[in-house]
Amino acid sequence: RAKQQGRNTYQWFASDLNVEANERVELRNDLQRALEQEQLEVFYQPMVESRTGKIRGSEALIRWHHPVRGLMSPIQFIPLAEDTGQIIELGRWVLQQACRDAVRLLGLGYRDHRISVNVSPVQLRQAGFVDLVTETLRQTGLAPELLDLEIVESAILYDTEQVVDRLRKLRELGVGIAIDDFGTGFSSLSYLKIMPVTKIKIDRAFIKDVISNRSDAAITQGILSMAHHLSLDVVAEGVETNAHAAFLRKNNCQLLQGYLFARPMPFQNMLEFLTTQAVANAPHGTDDSSDG
Ligand code: C2E
Ligand code: MG
Ligand code: MG
Ligand code: MG
């Protein structure tokens, strides 16, 4: 009887795996179609200067309008795309779209608006990645100084020498390198020594309870102090409350990003958001957003 039960358990387990495998195959095929049928869209989330409340840039975040499942978050398909290699094509598309949109913003007079693009470790392990960025900048006409590439610490876990060499070349082009989700990786501090980094993004895991949790506050202050000594820019991710923003402003965190200001949104909405902000920040405006 026990044996029978054991077998049933095993069968359930096996059929669960099958369902999961089928689902992955299906999703992979869907994603191939998505790339061909323009079901993907780049959303943007602004980064706000803590001192002035002005929008200094935005992060490109991919979304998938799946014909059956609806709007899908990248956490539901980026890992799969990394496994199947589809991230290469997808990443190329996001980079090009983001650079194009950045040039559109320039054309509308937002002269110093920076664009951040997430880059997968899988993309960075490609020998042609530096050429891809160079070519995309040339094609779109975006100044390299306005582009930041966001990478996670694990990006240099494998093929470290080649990846670091590619990052150096990108820096030489003028492109900025931001460490995303900073503090959640394995050895943040030693990586900082070998990575040609210009910006750190403090992971939202530290910001969430920064007001109530002493360790989170200490870690955040420590990261900020270290970043200042290394002359790196800092962005706090996941800023959701005025208390978060006030704490970060007090501790000289230059840039803030989070639902308090705006959720990621389509490019068109971002344009409207920028217009509203420009009015709010105009010298004759009555709404002074830089109080603190
Ligand atoms: P990430 O790069 O760390 O992006 C920040 C994530 O936090 C975004 O989720 C954003 O919507 C979310 N977020 C922003 N502010 C807040 C807040 O105040 N509270 C909370 N709870 N969340 C906030 P999203 O858009 O779902 O993206 C998830 C992850 O997917 C990204 O994390 C990034 O690792 C990856 N990703 C997104 N777009 C791309 C892409 O084009 N290429 C690659 N390789 N990865 C991407
Ligand atoms: Mg990011
Ligand atoms: Mg992040
Ligand atoms: Mg993340």
UniProtKB/TrEMBL annotation:
Coiled coil: none annotated. Residues 24-278 form the EAL domain. It comes from the Bacteria. This is EAL domain-containing protein. The chain holds residues 544 to 835 of 961 of the full protein.
